[in-house]
Amino acid sequence: MRSSAKAVVLFSGGLDSILTVKLLQDQGISTIALHCTTPFVGNPSDRFKDSLIKTYGIEEAIIKDLSLQFLPLLNHPKHGFGSQLNPCIDCKILFLRIAKEIMEEKEASFIATGEVLGQRPFSQRREAMELIEREAGVEGILVRPLSAKLLKPTIPETKGLVKREELLDIQGRSRKRQLELAKRYGLKEIPSPAGGCLLTDPSYSERLRRLLPFLNKLSPSDAIELLGVLRMGRLFMIDPEHLLIVARNDSEAKGLKALQRGTILTCNTSTGLMIGEPEPKSLNRAAKILARYTRGVEGPIQVKYEVNRTSEEILEVTPMPPEKVEEFLVR
Questions:
Q1: What is the four-CA torsion angle of 277, 281, 282, 287, rounded to 10 degrees?
Q2: CATH superfamily of 6-198
Q3: Average pLDDT per run of 10 along the chain, which is 331 residues long?
Q4: What is the CA radius of gyration of the chain?
Q5: Which residue intervals of the chain bear CATH 3.40.50.620?
């Protein structure tokens, strides 16, 4: 029997969020999937959006790019960072505030997430979960079906919109019960439990931490565009005002060339992108570093460069010595 209730599900695409949708659908509750993206997490593609409706029987899928709202959290998250540069508590508060807006806009009955009590040591402790509810303004209207029986009854439960007895009491890091549920629901593909946020990766976080002073000098739109390519290539802090990214393969070179801002440098087999206002000294240093990664060429090398995709110019440089290149490398 179909319920009159409708839920906005904060949908990451991981197994827990899929199971949350299934548990609500078992009760006849309509589901709207809200998938939030930042430069570090999420899939913004229309193909992914369409697949949610087709694969999981979701009534509607909404993708929200929260990059601009998320950017300040990299510097001063109110509730601090997790094990790396991940402001998980502040991030979840942001996502839930957006979910509440969608709930009101779509006239839904409540919000649901796939959170599991005790699964993540920073953001899914009981105290943290209660804090997140309060600061997001969703106390009483946030249902966590996988752990609901271990938490306080919510308004949708007390009103009978959601049958509490059909919700679960999962806690901790083990995925055994989730995998059993996945089998019961006939899920053919089991997503990774990791959540996929780049900010939980130690090497990426360390790289980003070193670059934050530089990123903070850029406009928000430029910073967001740059964050999207920080996984690419080798990074070099030429000076406090200029960053060079050197592609390691053809795929990375193509990605760098697709960006609309910055100075593209090319020489034979190498491609680089310099961020920052081009000036003779910085351009010369960038060209020398790029030349170091050009294969099969001896002596002076011609490096072509284009500033913001305008006219092409040429610099002739000698490759920088390897030991000098190391001084500028961001590891």
A1: 130
A2: HUPs (3.40.50.620)
A3: 85 94 97 96 92 92 96 94 94 98 97 95 93 97 98 97 97 94 90 74 89 90 84 89 93 86 89 91 95 79 86 90 93 78
A4: 24
A5: 6-198
